[in-house]
Amino acid sequence: MGLLTKSWHTWFLEERPSVSLALFRFAVAWTAAFHVIPTFFEMGDNYLSTAFREYNASFFTVQVLERVAQNPDWIVWAMAGVFVLSLVFYFIGFLTPFSGAALYLSCLYFYARNSLHIGTLSWDMYLVVFFLTLCAVYPGDSFSVDSLIRGDPEPWNRKRPFFQQRLLQMVIASFFFYTALWKIWPQGNWVTDHPYFYLMHYPDIGVMKQFPGRSLLARHLWLSEAVEYLILFFEFTLPVWLFWKRTRIFAILLAGFFHVLLVVTMHVPTIFFFLFPSMLLLFIEPEEIVNWLERRRQAWKAWGRHKLIYDGGCGFCRASVKRILACDPTGRLELVDFRSEDVARLDPELTHEACHAQMHLLEREGKLTGGFHAFRRLTLKLPMLWPLAPLINIPGLGLIGEPIYRWVARNRFGFHLWPTCKTNVCLREK
């Protein structure tokens, strides 16, 4: 294999864990949510037939703009519903490729409907990044409902070709480089015209916020010039620092601090707050994230894990606990099959009959719960289930949840027709 071929394979085709892209999915969803949803609170002024609208003919064709402009209000409301539903599905990773495509198309729709309220240069950048994330299904590999449906107990370690993450790395690096290149272009040239100095004199409702040191920058041109040159040097050289392993961590921290300064000193879109810093984290090697998870698993093993007692002879039960393990990347749970281990030594209440009737959770502190109440406790113990905790732990919900759980547990022998249960142990022991 030649050097060029080997380098190409290493940079783009080598299979590596896709955990980084799964985490990046959250940033993509949150960015869309915080950028678009606030515009829905004034639908009449922003998107409906009563709104004053502007159109971006440089991004869309005239035919697309005309077609979207003719849509009646009920279609606009329907697209708002599509946006919200696909946003939720994409965030939780349910039907990730389809929900992501629906979310992307609805973002384009509202951009075409009125670019005045949604369109900025950073939004154009966001759409480019979002499109790249749709080129493969990797963002739904882990930390998703899709991974639970698959029943993969360690989805964060699933390996995929690295090309998609590498492209996203190249995109954020090019954003910085070409932003600096634009700043030395003839119009608004930072080297000769010093627009940053004059921005210090703008009203607070303009581009700049009121921040400590602003009056000092406004009084001294040489100080504003120094800041301009420092920013130019930073943006031009950051791509090199990011791709060079020895300076990568420093570059990520420095760029993160740079984005914090942008948010503190300027009125910038939420994209600078949610998406761009998350793209910088894509430079962290995915193996480092997997290794960190493994260190956390070893730490929990040393500290003492919560024990989940289940029926290892039931295929339906085995499939269920595999999905629970997919929600436990840091290894806080230890599975205990009551059929193969003496669980009575763990707690006298763990009799054969009790374990056969329902699963149990024995927490490291000694608290024992079973059935629906055990699942309730799991939503408090596993970080990935925390979003469910407020719903599952509503006072009085046990009056409904417990009977439903008991019915499923009592009739799980009927699920022997599922491909997850082929031994029919539960059916024989009914």
Overview of the molecule:
There is one protein chain. Helices cover 60% and strands 5% of the residues. With 430 residues, the protein is mainly α. The chain folds into three domains: 9-161, no CATH class; 162-268, no CATH class; 304-428, no CATH class. The strands form two sheets. The protein has a four-stranded mixed sheet, with helices on one face. Helix 2 (19-40) runs antiparallel to helix 15 (271-281). The radius of gyration is 27 Å and the shape is globular.
- H/E element sequence: HEHHHHHHHHEHHHHHHHEHEHEEHHHH
Q: Label the overall shape.
A: globular
Rg, alpha carbons: 27 Å
Query: Strand-residue fraction?
Result: 5-15%
Taking pLDDT < 50 over at least 5 consecutive residues as the criterion, the unreliable ranges are: none
Percent of residues in helices? 55-70%
Tally of helical runs: 22
Number of strands: 6
The average pLDDT is 87
| Sequence of strands across the biggest β-sheet | 4-3-5-6
Measured between the Cα atoms of the first and last residue, the distance is: 61 Å
How would you sum up the major sheet?
A: 4 strands, mixed
How many discrete domains? Answer: 3
Would you tell me the structural class of the helices and strands? mainly alpha
Would you summarize the structure shown here?
This protein has 430 residues and is mainly alpha-helical.
Could you give the topology of this structure?
Elements (H helix, E strand, L loop, with lengths): L2 H11 L1 E3 L1 H22 L2 H4 L15 H8 L3 H20 L3 H18 L1 H4 L2 H13 L11 H6 L8 E3 L1 H21 L11 H5 L14 H6 L1 H23 L1 H21 L5 H11 L4 H18 L2 E5 L4 H11 L7 E5 L14 H6 L2 E3 L5 E3 L1 H10 L7 H4 L5 H13 L14 H4 L2
Parallel strand pairs: 3-4
Antiparallel strand pairs: 1-2, 3-5, 5-6
